[in-house]
Amino acid sequence: MSTFGRLLGFLRPYRTGVVASLALAALAMAGTVALPWLTGRAVDRIERHDTSGLRVLAVAVVGVAILRLALSVFRRLIAGRVSLGVEYDLRNLLYGHLHELELGFFAGHQTGQLM
């Protein structure tokens, strides 16, 4: 568990991106839940032969689907930026650590093990 906590520490500089990604994911999930609910309301309108209400619900379903798609795309873009930033930071830390090691360390280890 301590390793996981240390890894979570790398997200600290990207706190805004993480929070934005979580918020967008929650909103996209709300859209996912709203789609079957709206579909159920549309079925009710069909049973009542309410064509004007059905048109409104059809537009709402399309609108929610497009909004959900946009939210998911933005969430993935933000999460990708955060993950690349964390990867960049980890690589720099590892590279910096390897530069601080004495040359004897590299003489005693095979290149394949270091890679």
Would you summarize the structure shown here?
By secondary structure, the chain is mainly alpha-helical.
Any chance you could write out the topology, listing elements then pairs?
Blueprint: H1 2-9, H2 15-47, H3 51-100, H4 103-107, H5 111-114
Q: Averaged pLDDT, please?
A: 93
Number of alpha- plus pi-helical segments: 5
- Name the shape in a single word: rod-shaped
Spatial separation of the terminal alpha carbons: 26 Å
How would you characterize the largest beta sheet?
none
Description:
- This protein is an all-alpha fold and 115 residues long.
- It has one domain (2-103).
- 87% of the residues lie in helices and 0% in strands.
- It has helices at residues 2-9, 15-47, 51-100, 103-107, 111-114.
- The longest helix has 50 residues, at 51-100.
- It is rod-shaped.
- The mean pLDDT is 93.
List keywords for this structure.
115 residues, mainly alpha, 5 helices, 0% strand
